[in-house]
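Assemble and predict.
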Amino acid sequence: MPSHLYIHVPFCDGKCHYCGFFSVVAAPSVIELYSTLPAREYDCHLARLPELGKAPLRTLYMGGGTPAMLGNDGLKRLADALAKRLSFDTLEEWTVEITPASASAALFATLSAIGVNRVSIGVQSFDDTILKRIGRRHDAQAAVAAIKRAQDAGFANTGIDLIAGLPDVTPALWSETLDRAISLSLTHLSVYALTVESGTPLAQQVEDGLELPGDDDQLAALDQAEAAFGEAGFARYEISNYALPGFECRHNLAVWRGYDYLGLGPAAASRVGRMRWTNSKDLEEYIGNVKNDTPPPGESTAFDAAEDAEERVIFALRLSEGIDLAAEARRFPALAGRVDAWEQRLADLAVPGITERVGDRWRLTARGREVCDAVLRELV
Ligand code: SF4
């Protein structure tokens, strides 16, 4: 049963051109109404899965969207509503995603007061021209000010997100962004390769002729980040994530290591027991259902024991720690029939340098990380 809780806050003050996450610009009355609904959705799940309440809560991650759009009162209402249902005594990590434009001193005071101990700030680039071109509603100075405000408010565990492979970002410009990131006393750095999500303004721009960097340029930008961050003491513990020792995101680690998690809010995904479900991206329906104590609509998949185990185990190949197949077979007896075939396939992939065995664990090499999705698809 999940010890890891995700809450999606589906509001933003506009739409970044590349963004494929579910978020809308909504009226203040809708945002206010929303603030207690994730807790009520929790009640809906608890009614059909009473075991949910038995697992100690270890990580809480509030993302979006822009959680700060709830306002300080809304954040407190949400935290109070959760605290009535769940004990925070066992909580090790509570992350909130922040946008630079919303990062006021009052926000950080509220986050600190409700128990948040980790913030992740969406910076994406430290170049104003690039930020404007991708539809961000802040400049580089606001991003730096947001980071400093978080640190001044006592958030020793502050991370940022960057995007690699944005159009017109030369290696020299990218290097400036990486150096700026390194200079800011952060504990965690995420670098996502730009992807074109269908239905976004970026997808339209590409259709209209915008040229994006090719695969080689994108890989070079990711390599540049790995070299710069490595030199600064950050370990690449997952394909897109770097941390100083001890500052890896515990919530995301739990998800990649195949543990149960519960997601609340429209578009939120959950993995509980042999089930996976994803709430639909429809805010109106979400509000209508949850206000009437009915679970939100969505899609669900039931797995048999072997499928369940395969999915939980194999995605840990994204992590630099890799996987210990013998230990996983003990954790999931249903894997018994798969482990030998995986062992063989991972050994085959070691020949062209895609995987490597380190002690009892298999992991992807630098070359393997470049083709990670294809490897995972083949193994599942
Ligand atoms: S702030 Fe984040 S969630 Fe909102 S539109 Fe931009 S990328 Fe998407």
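The radius of gyration is 21 Å.
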